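re: ur question from the group chat, yeah i did fold both. here u go
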Amino acid sequence: MRRKIGITIPEMIKTAFSTKITKSYPFKELDVSERFRGKLEIDPDKCTGCGVCAIVCPASVITMVEVGKRKFRDKEVTIRRPIFNLYNCISCGQCVDDCRFNALRLTKEFELAVFDKNSLVMKKAIEHVE
């Protein structure tokens, strides 16, 4: 089936005089929507190390690591905290939704392009252990 070129001309004229859709992003600050899901952030003070975030993450970007031991009653308990590999994060928000302690949130930050992907490994919870 051949298309007639005359059918597309009215559409081209209509779009040529319509308002711009393209944003001038790098030169002008971009406003993101209220429900935008950007870079993952953790509040180390609220994190208990329960590991639920690592279990529910569909992209497997959260790894629980042992950071020490603590005496609890008559037992010694292992303290674990999460490491986040943000270069694989799909910003789905599953970890945020399932965190009972509100330690995780998705920010409005979206500029995550880096030369070294290892700089996107977030160890904030490990560096903050008492």
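okk and heres the other one u asked abt
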Amino acid sequence: MSKDKPESLAIDGEGISIGIIAARYNFLLVNALVESVIQTLSASGVSVDDIETFRVPGSNEIPHAAAMAAKTGEFDVIIGLGLIIEGDTNHDEIIGHATANALLQASMQFEVPIINGIITVRNSEQAEDRITGEIERGTEFAHAALEMAQLSKELMKRIIVADIETAIEDMDWMDDDIDDEDDKDWPK
């Protein structure tokens, strides 16, 4: 992960509904990540009542739960939080790639932003630095969630307006097909 992060936008989180899917594997560090995310969201005006956290066994299970949460339509944004630490095999790479792809697919399918907050690291020291240390990815994930929820709401409004305008334009043909002769049959 890059350390060249964008500046956080000041977004009022009031009324934004957020689902958090968090792995139980590497519980202490993932829990610290969850706490950092919730603290940042609360500081940005998101009500604790608008944040719902679901726990899953590990990072590999996050995409399924995130897709199901997105499918409910109850959340403006979902944040998947997990930690994958490299081991003696390439299992960490497989899980990291698979979960990233699955989260992106679920986000596109259900049209709900899903923030990939699954951290992949080589060792515990890197994990601690990114979660409880200087880098503090939880804050970044929370800010990304707020920004994407706001952007998604704005774009959805534009889509609805465009759909309404198209529907109205499609109705214009009705006026052209009705001539004066046929008007006498229409109820007044």
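fwiw on the second one: The chain has a mean pLDDT of 90. The longest strand covers residues 77-85. idk if thats what u expected
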